[in-house]
Sequence to fold (959 residues):
Amino acid sequence: MSVTGERLQPTLFELSRPGRGGGKIPHPPKDALDRIPAGARRTMPPALPEMNEPDVVRHYVNLSQLNYSVDSGFYPLGSCTMKFNPKLNEWAARLRGFAELHPMAPDETAQGTLQLLWELERALAEISGMPAVTLQPAAGAQGELTGVLMIRAHHRARGEGHRDEVLVPDSSHGTNPATASMAGYRTITIPSAPDGGVDLEAFRAALGPRTAAVMITNPSTLGLFEARIGELLEAVHAAGALAYMDGANLNAILGRFKPGEAGFDVMHFNVHKTFSTPHGGGGPGAGPVGVGAALIPYLPEPRVLREDDGSFRLERQGERPTSIGRMRSFVGNTGVLVRAYAYIRAHGGSGLREVSDDAVLAANYLKHRLAEAYDIPYDRACKHEFVASAATIKHRTGVRTLDIAKRLIDYGYHPPTIYFPLIVEEGMLIEPTETESVDTIDAFADALIAIAAEASARPDLVTGAPHTAPVRRLDEATAARQPNLRWRPMSGVETPCPD
Amino acid sequence: MPYGPHTADDRERMLAALGLTSVDQLFDDIPVALRASHLDLPDPEPELELAARLRALAARNRTDLASFLGAGVYRHWSPPAVDQMLLRGEWYTAYTPYQPEISQGTLQSIYEYESLLAELVDLDVVSASHYDGAAATAEAALMTCRATRRERVLISRGVHPHYRETTTTYFEGGLELDEIPLIVDGDAAGTTDLAALERMLAEPGRPVAGVIAAQPDFLGLLEPMPEIGRLAHAAGALFVAVVEPVSLAVLEPPGAYGADIAAGEGQPLGIAPQYGGPYLGILATTDALVRQIPGRLVGLTSDLDGRRAFVMTMRAREQDIRRDKAASNICTNQALLALAASIYLATIGPHGLRDVAALGASRATELEAALAAVGAGRLHPGPYLNEFAVRVPDARSVHRRLLDAGVLAGLVLADAEPGDPTLSDGLLVCATEVTTSDEIARFATALGAILAAPVAGAAR
Fold:
């Protein structure tokens, strides 16, 4: 589609003027490319924008101001843990020794980073109660794939390659079933019980000789600790299957529950949730994976090893033939892991436990405050987040959760996660995190309660929201039906590359 | 707790509202037998001391060397504007633009990234980004299988070994990956063996979904991409080009030689090496394959008042909607790195990017001559852009001795490709626009001294 209406900020392409820019790179000798065969040389140059630095800077400052962020205000996006991102960690990741180190630099030139990674592995092992950890996966979803591929290798090595099913609760993140499919498994969905936990009977009935693994998020995506976790894990192991824990919500149980000690065989960490590495507008993350003894042989390569003399090195290619192999290039998202390391060091063991205590206390307090105006489908102690629902409001006034979310924008807040998990009608998943003050939480509760009142008194005010955002609601249907996924430069002026 | 706001009074006020006396009561649902008592980790560290610890760790890394190491990650000049813009909290402390009304900055920046990269690769559609070049290559391979409903992919041994290994891992779910050998000698040594490719494509009963080759290849050499593409298409397979984005300022782009998919590592676009990441996986394709591309896409649309705006679109491919039927399990993208690449491209401009590529080629020519003059000639005769392999007897030990002289002499090929006897004496070296003549002279002088005294080398 093309849009001719008013625009918030021109694109780079509209700002471009032929002849602008330059002054960054010395000019190469004229014959620099002579040895490149003509057939391999580009004939039409890419139509990239030509800009001067001040215009580039203004463009990106203006664009940034169209974003809502944790640094601008309260961002209770459930399941995403939008806590404060410490500035020390940004400083640390940019230290020259960390930032400029090449990933294939010889081990003896990389001892500082290797030590940091090794210490981080040990810290994550302690936190998870797992004996070993890999830092390689680039994100939580890649950590899931890593874990499930290790489970697959484990069953194959035991002559049980016929196990081809993965059990997933219906409240799970979409990545769980998508991961199972990528690893060649069939997904079996298990319903939730009325209390929000996994339905134990349905779960037992689905377990069998074809079950390879069970993927459980604990605390669940409803923010509830899986109280029957002991029975679940026992049943999984009795069936010869392995238990995967989606660690997305680990931030609620630091120092209170160690998945490895409780019987999980493998789990991933989302360092952008639990350990405050920045969300970056949608990435980067890192998805370390902890494993129990049975899966250690299959960890991806390379592992970080400590030698007897106290030096560190990376495993060499092919050194451990049982490994599932690489999940990505190089050792991992080291720049992200530096930040996670700094966070863990700043808090120490006692501080991490306090992180969970405060996150859980804040969530329960906010849930309590909202109960006067919203449905609370699972009204028991929650962990770091909880689901509220506007089902009653919708039946009474026609105002939906989507409308309430948009109206929150007018009050100066980022809306919670809405319509997830899929099993709650008109649900909103709210996660205040441990870095928000009581005053902020109270003000947010007041806003949501006020919106509930508006839904009855002035529903059009809510259904027409947001009123104060840079743009109003978007036409998503046309965007999908007639996709415009790139700017096509309008000038039509194309000049061949200089020889 | 260093970043927490709560005073003792605050905590008590919240507990009192809940009718509780201790936060422990909120954890009563954890079965007693499974409760952990504490974390055996060091004590909290004040910022001053932690900063000193981090500084000391960083200082243990050696980044003072004259480096000729590339092998998929390249040193470039990144204008300070890039990182200074990135450090705005509005960018890095936001998340996925689920609420487009208050995320137009991120959304427009991703749309611009998609557009800039589409210009570079000359294809219609670029995803909002993947983890890195290896994961993007693996996803490209999976795309070819979905699109053709075939289950076998051919990948040239000229593709980065980490990308090949990653694709192998991703294919564990039941797909087949075969490696196309490289030519061993002659003028085309080190590039994809077209005759072998033709044979592999013609194997009866084993239809090929996709053919993957890299330009330049891992050894820095230029591949006959149009021919590889023609062979792939003639067999009904899709053609995947693995590319290095800076080179696309001067090398023919994938769209021009018929590639159906382009994958690559975006790190050279202003992103620091950081010992492995975070980087930027580039994934691009044609309009015909847009429904097969995994990962986020941002498109242009309008709001209720007709104002131009941007939004995540074609979401029906994604895991949170399609669950086990999704195109991939990828959840987020590398938004902040895509932003870095866009700011880099906008700041450096089309002419600047061409200068980066050409100046790197020029420095590499200088490096080639300097190394040849001390007896380290090239391992392959074919054309290259800014990276090439040289023959150095006992390469591993020479490489180590050069470290003592302050030179990081590229990559020991025997470590990267242990199974390939033709590379056992090879060092893979590169130059970019930041390589200086002084560094080249240091490298050549030190190498000359070592090669002139082989006995000392053998003793190490």
